[in-house]
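Chain A, query sequence.
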Amino acid sequence: MPKKAKAELNKVGCGFCLAKWTQVTIHLQLGRTHSCHHPDSHVIPLVELRRNPSALHNTKHKKEARKEMLSGLRPEECGYCWNVEDNSEFWSDRLFKSAEPWSWPDLERISQSNWRENVNPRYVEVSFSNACNQKCSYCTPADSSLWASEIDKLGPYPTTDYFNAMTKDRVAFKSNEDNPYLTAFWKWWPELYRDLHTFRITGGEPLLSKDTWDILDFIINEKEPNRNLHLAINTNLNFSEKTIDRFIDKVNRITDENRVKDFVVYTSVDGWGEQAEYGRYGLVFNRFWDNVHKILEKCPTVTLGVMSSYNALSLPTFHKLIYGVHELKEQYASHERAWSTAAALDASYLRYPRHQTVQILPQDLSSIVKEQADLASHLQDVFLVGPNKDIVSYGYTQMEIPKIERIYDWMISPQDEKQLQINRSNFYSFINEHDKRRGTDFCKTFPEYEEFYNHCKSIKL
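Chain A, predicted structure.
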């Protein structure tokens, strides 16, 4: 498909990408938007929004990029894909994103469209607020209210990359403030909802937002529901039984009445047990894992995706997560679920902040990452054939295994030695301050890293 997609897209222009029209991520708490995770998000001008609520997607900035694409040019902000296409044999994300089911069917229509047109995207990710009950080690104030509160009180961490500083264009609206971007979204929503292929709610933590519950109630009460909608919610599942039961009730009302095509719950964890709790401060791991089981048990048609940002703190216990997700697959394999597996592990490597990536670790630890990739490969697809000859998989798939293998490849890739020393020095500065502010004890939690921690401490820049 990528080869075909490239040929068809290039008939329009060498920079043509359907994602600029068909998909969007909107950060309502910041008033920012982008159609792809590679270009940075840009500010949504309020003057545009007052005239047109769909400017949450159809900004002047984005329309100018569409104009370039339809004219055979390559927008500068999309340089990631141009670099891949011009300097490697790999397929760029321009091709994969354009080939998605919410994009490809509209190829001809969009290629003939006027760049000034307002369009309703088919794939929408939205974060309503930065309200969150965790402050994960690599998160930022823009995406976690607990991070914002800590930084407001104590200032940024003393690292040279200033990854958690509160810049003026990244300050989130508070829950008690009027948010014009949120107001515009609800004006646009009834029209937007009709055309959606996929709607995904992110955060912050969505279950702390009233707007998330309002979306669920809208779908439950809508007289003419969009039954082709793929609905997804990212949640850390770090909640009391009362909140989880309320969520399960809403999910089952939606799925039992076939009000959506399918419902996927995405959750996040990067390791196992106490070490996972350190990296995702505020997480109560056993409660989280109990809630994972409860979702899969009580919501028989829901698929659960475990998103894992593999980082320096993941390495010691990631094998336990591989086993844990495999047990979920085996225990909850069902012919009723939307995907061929009950649970899926989506492992990606953390790139920022640099001082927390797996690349800062000693190279001799890369063998552990290789062993983890081999473990997932050993636990790959096992198929069950049901009475109607339908097939259910409960092993790791050829979508999941290469992502873990890619972590190993990235870890052993060449690095700039000077930058490596800076990153390791920043790692010590962050961890040391983390323990002071949050009452944690890194070397007690990660005894296997004590020597490495002291090495990072000794670095003189």
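The two ends are 49 Å apart (CA to CA). The first strand starts at residue 23 and ends at 27.
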